[in-house]
Amino acid sequence: MPVDAFRKYFEDNPDIFTALVAALAICGSYLAGVRGAKIQAGGGRDQAAAAREAAQITADAQRVAALWTVRQVQLAELIRSADTLVEVCDRFWIDGGDDLAGQVSAASAAVSSRWNEVRLIVTESVVQAAGELARSAMTVEENAQRFAPVMSARNVLSRIVEDDPHVGHEIDEVLAMEVSQGHRARALANLIGDLTEEQAHHIVAYDGPSEVMLRRTAEVRREFTVALNALVHEARTMLRSEDDVVPAVPQQRRRWWQRAA
Description:
Helix content is about 85%, strand content about 0%. It has about 260 residues and is mainly α. Helix 2 runs parallel beside helix 4 (about 125-165) and helix 4 packs across helix 7 (about 195-205). It is rod-shaped, with a radius of gyration of 42 Å.
């Protein structure tokens, strides 16, 4: 039989048998090494892919957290700047001087700047609400710029008339003069020494009742309050203030070993 023949051959040639066994051992080791290397390489690729995915998840989480923080800070700054503008306008009604006029303009510019920054980073609903807040704050400013100097000048004139009731008739005569507003303003300033020509101009330029100015002022303040509350609501919704959770990270694609786990 062939098996007996092989056995007899190797018994007669032990050196060849020894060499053959060694060769088979070497081949087996080589094949095992190749297979192990392939398995190790595959595992290395999986580990590298997992590391890349973990790094991407971390980067996405950092991006979302940074955006959340920027949105919160910028919206808070917009609200603060709008409140500041309205507060300065309130003081402008009392004083009406050039110093406060400059502060009103500066506060208005701050609102405009914050609004331009906010609308680049927030959701569409918050853009709309923030725009309404900025618009209503600007309306408060426009109303103050138009009427506050008039009211301030009228208050000065009222105090003068209270101290000297007889001057009231002379004031009425000046205001009734059929000349240009500039002539009447200069005549009024000349008549009332404590009244500047600019204040006299405001008095002459607007002869409507004070109630109209006060009613319009109350109206624009209500509009501002409504816009502020609307923005706060939209901002809290966007920032998920009621959820007490960290900002959501975009969903990542799960690999086969993750799905199997």
